[in-house]
Amino acid sequence: MATLKDIASRANVSLATVSRVLNKDESLSVAHETKQRILLIADELNYQPGKRKVVKKKTVLRMGLIYWYSKEQEMEDPYYLSVRLGVERTCSERGIEIVKYYKNDLRFRSAGEEKLDGMIAVGKFSLSDVELFNTLTDKLVLVDFTPTSNVDSIVVDFRSAMIDVLKHLIDLGHERIGYIGGHEYVQDNEMIKDERETTFFEYLSMYHTFHPEFIWTGKFTAADGYTLMKEALKLDNGPTAFIMGSDSMAIGAMRALHEKGVRVPEQVSVVGFNDIEMSRYLQPSLTTIQVHTEYMGEAAVDLLLDQLSSKRKIAKKVVLPTTLLVRESSGPLK
Fold it and tell me: Is this prediction's pTM over 0.85?
């Protein structure tokens, strides 16, 4: 079994740093890249933190955890990394054994032989995926997206979040508002409806301030945020404020603005989504929507345990609220 010492050796950092990162010590001053490297190495070594003392149970639950993103994709956009760490931490605290799968892992096809008590699927899965999961276990929770109302799920209230951002920018005097987001797909290249983009269109249309040319989409990565912002800056009379589909995209976009000499927020305001740790350390610090990603993972475990302990036949859908964190990257129109 991997130890803190093993992780420290691989990451070339002190034992104390590894311990404080894994225990989410907010007072620790360490580079974001170092923190992500420690978390990735811990995952590769299948490190299991020491379990809190709990009342011993006669039976140890075995839960399947299916990841939609690969490890490489998690590093580019840490949204799902945070969700699954929430699942893993909660399972560790409650003495639940986890069997991990990635969607494209061939080992996933043999999951039915694992004798799982339940399964949590993190990411965007199609209806056919859900039907496959149901052949492996009748206890299933979907996290972040659900193609059916017949399965327990944990989702985010992105509609209300987008309205909060738009109200914030409109109150600051902005009328020309752009959206740089992403499109995601499930099996057979079926594009998923993005509630943020839909709400952006509907809300601004009510006030006759929607400009179709002010929407750019790609992937939810810093690289695409950078590229798409460079495209947006080619407009002669472009947006005075941008809403980004993720903090990672916002980081790339702010780099593009800096290279063009565009000052944030004096000339252009920028708002992100997710509130990844790096967002508060940017210059200027990023106004963003805080999505409670680790709590999503915890809530998914609670929902699965509720299934196991009850005899209910009706699925539950838990919709989690968000919080608008106003920092330095959004300001009044000048």
Answer: no
